[in-house]
Amino acid sequence: MFLCIHGENPSLFADRLKAAVTRRRYAESQIRLRMLIEEDSLAGTSPQVYHDLSWMQRILSFSLPSSVGDFSYELADWVDAMVVEVQKNYSNEMKRMMLTRSMATTAATADLLRDIAWPPKRRKEVPWVGYSPFVPWREYRSVKHQVLTFSGVSLRSRAEVVSALHSTILLCDDLASIRSPLLVDEGALTRSLTLEQFNSIHDLHIAQMAYVRDLWLPAVKVAVVKDLMSAGMTRYDFNESNFIRYLQSPLRRVLLLVQFLLSEALKGIYVEAVEKFAAFFEARTPGEYAVDDSVGECGALFVTEVVVSQREVVKEAPPAAEEEGKSAEDRKPEIEYVPCFAFARSPAEFAEAAEEIYNKSIVAVDNLSSVERLLFPNMVRDDELSKGFRDHDQWLEEGRSRVRASILAHEKWLDEYLRSFTDLEDVLAIDVEAELEEYRSSEEPVSANEVKKIVAAKLRRREEVLMRLPTRSMRIGMFEIGFGEIAQSTAEKLLAVAEGILRIEGDKLKEKMMAEIQPKYDEIFDKLACEIPDIETVSEMTEFLTHLPAEVAKVEGEVEECVEMYEAVGTFGTIYELDKDTLDLRWIMYGRPGEIVSRATKLSEKLSVDREKFCEEQASSQDTFEGLIDNLEEEVMSFSVHDKLGDVEKVSGLLEDLQERLEAAVNQARLFNSRETLFNRDTTDYSRLGKICRDFEPYVNLWRTAFNWHKNKIVWRKGPFGDIDARHCEGEVNGGIKLMYKTIRKLKEDASLQSICSIAEQVRKELEDFKPYVPVVVGLRNGGMRGRHWEMISEKIGCTVGPEMEPFTLEALLERGIDKFSEEIAEVGDRAGKEWALEKQLEAMKAEWEGIYFDVKEEYRNTGTYILKGSDEALNLLDEHIVTVQAMQFSLYKKVFEEDIDSWAERLMRVSETLDEWLKLQRAWMYLQPIFDSEDIVKQLPSESKRFRNVDQKWRKTMADAHQNSKVVEICASEGLLEKFREANVILETVQKGLEDYLESKRALFARFYFLANEELLEILSQTKDPTRVQPFLNKVFEAMSKLTFEGDNEITQMHSAEGEIIDYVTAVLTRGINVESWMSGVEKEMREA
């Protein structure tokens, strides 16, 4: 008893030892008390013993059969012994009562009873059933009479009834041994089951309970009928058709007894089945968390798979937007779904399935027909066999709770097991294609060492996943946890990323070799193989060979980087191998520098030979060139023979030809000098060629000017006046005069050129004679000349001139003496030009607004209406054009366009004011729309809501019109729109004022609301039906609180800190039907109390 086995719970051992010692003490005390009573050592405790045996004779007369007689001598010894024993028991009991009740207060008795330990009185249990006598016992006659009376009315005194009941009991015993309503057979559950298999097996077993209805009850019926028929049809009439007589017949009572036996049998098998079913699950529930991989040795009951699921992660709400026009909806916390490990079937689902099977088994024996109904189907129709218990009896509920508790006990263990893999969930989130695309599109160059580190890290992570995630099933209590292919598929992601990175680097390597390095080598080879046509190429190639080693070394450095990448990728040859072409490129590029050195040596030798050859060729060409210079000099010297102005076209052609040859000779001389530098020779002096060009310059200036004037004067005087380019005319005349003065001075230096000088004088004179007409041409050919300007000129010169005259030429205008009014014409032309500038500016502004539209294409969120976008461009253009048109209003030349300018200025100002009011209204509407879209706010602010709805209707109609016609100028200049916007803004200002007053009233009731911005407070108040909407803002209202626990009917029971600490509230805070400021005050109160 005092032995404590190693591993036994000390608390249980102490309880067991205490109970044993206590019971031993009680037993010793009772023995001592019994000895005191039997010793007769206590004075005054001996009760009176009655020696009159008449009472015994009376008892025996009632007890013994009448055939025995009164006190027959055969029973004398037995009666004497019984009398002695009864008297002794009576005496001892009376002494015990006197000792413990009447004399316990005396000093002597108190000393004797001091060491007696009295056991606690047991509390009398309330019986399930009971009885109460309905006839006083004194009215009963003798036992014999009662036995005879009972035998006359009792069914159990008849052999056929006893036989029927016996048969029924045997069938009930057979049912208990053959069928159990719940499957608890270890042999039937030889392997772990999925939820579907578990349901299927048990559903099939429960379906077999139809045996009760189809076989068992009919068997009971047959047995009862067979046994009762042995008494004959006269006592038990199975063909009875009168229901009243049947109710009074013995058969009815027999069948009721049978039904009671059947009900009790059903209850018995269910009591046993429920106990076994609950014990079946409890036996598979360990006392503590343990993970075991010995699934085959100790099979689990259930199988559940670990799968990849999604978990909600609530991001912190972004800071309140300070930009105007942003609604509170924009600041809702974002919910992100991240992959995680989860069970395909949770313990709760298995518990629900087990409970459902439990419930199905209970109702499986509902609606059974009683034996009465089977025997008399036409007379007894509504009678059903009672199953002996109710669906919600205490023992059934306890069994159900035990099963559910056993399964749900695994929930925390399975969750804890899954949490051990939380650090691997980042691998589940890997999107192989996205990660590879990000790696591929990265602009940062990656070295070979970095590639090795990245790939090695992925492979190490893969090994960790394969090591951590089981590849075989694990067991926790009654659950077998299968991982399926999840370990392999998760690890394959990392392998795919590693392989993809190597493939990307392999592709980059091949692309760099072929697209960058090989073209550079090919360019070098092409350069080395190029033709050498002249000394410039020789010099260029010599320079190229000088820098070639540096270029090759640079490319070799790039090749070396590629070689490092080759080796890095090759390190992981077990998972990725470069293709043959890429590998071949490595060795091809590796051998290119040697080939370049060989070809460069050959090219250097060839350049030395070509240099000598080209040097000899140039010497010969320069001798020939000297003769060409002599010929050109002679032609220039003899060009003075052309001294007739009438041959201007012929002379112009000869001049252009000689000028081209002179320019070619100059270029050739420069080429010879540059090549002499390349040959390292002294440069030849060709300054004589420059003197020839200078001597020829006067001829060029003269004959070119003469040719141009000869051609232009006919076009300008006799051609259509509207075709004259005034600016070109002015430039040609003024430039020609200046050039002629310069040419004349040059020609006068040589007396032999007097005839040529006279030609120059003549050309100059003709140009100067035409020069006074130039201002007339410039003035009249102004682009702004209109009919009113021609009328002004006609009025000034005294005759009608204009585009309508025939012919409309300069010569015709000169004949009318227009050249005498050049100053007046210049003044009119200047005015026309400035008026034309104003007109073009005004038209340009109007044309620019034709392409300015608002962006009113897409609906704003889910409001069913639109908002104004693209207003920045319109506002900037408005500012610019308003300044421009105001400047035009102050112009001295606005008179002709004054009405148009003023009208346009007024239109722009109206557009500007309308747009300002529109944007102001839009900001207010965007702020208030989501607020008054909430039913809670509408109920709390009915008047403000009504005002907003009126504005909202007008806003929607205006935006629908803008959607149909979004041209800025047209819609903003619409009649009445500006006034409508101004009125709406006044109304919304009133609404906002009422809203702010409402928020202030809420803050006055709960001061911590002052920590929230208006938008945040409105977010809470607009969702009063959902108290959880306060969660994102809790850390602002209560600094250390991150969230609350809502349970049941949205009762708040816990508060959570940002660090994860959880504190239970003393009293749950109710939120249903309570204003938010009230229950938030309750949260604050409970926070202090907790």
- Count of individual helical segments: 36
Structural class category: mainly alpha
| Backbone shape | elongated
Number of strands: 7
Kindly report the spatial arrangement of strands forming the biggest sheet: 2-1-4-3
Give the N-terminus to C-terminus distance in angstroms.
Answer: 48 Å
GO molecular function, one term: dynein light intermediate chain binding
Coiled coil: 648-675
InterPro entries: DHC (IPR026983), Dynein_2_N (IPR042222), Dynein_heavy_linker (IPR013602), Dynein_linker_3 (IPR042228)
Keywords: ATP-binding, Cell projection, Cilium, Coiled coil, Cytoplasm, Cytoskeleton, Dynein, Microtubule, Motor protein, Nucleotide-binding
Q: SSE layout and pairings?
A:
Blueprint: H1 10-39, H2 54-63, H3 76-102, H4 107-112, H5 143-153, H6 159-178, H7 195-207, H8 210-229, H9 243-248, H10 250-282, E1 302-314, E2 335-343, H11 347-363, H12 371-375, H13 394-419, H14 425-428, H15 432-441, H16 448-468, E3 474-476, E4 479-482, H17 486-528, H18 535-570, H19 580-637, H20 648-678, H21 687-718, H22 726-747, H23 754-770, H24 774-780, H25 787-797, H26 810-815, H27 822-849, H28 871-889, H29 898-932, H30 935-940, H31 942-964, H32 968-972, H33 977-1005, H34 1014-1021, H35 1034-1037, E5 1041-1047, E6 1051-1057, E7 1062-1069, H36 1076-1089
Parallel strand pairs: 1-4
Antiparallel strand pairs: 1-2, 3-4, 5-6, 6-7
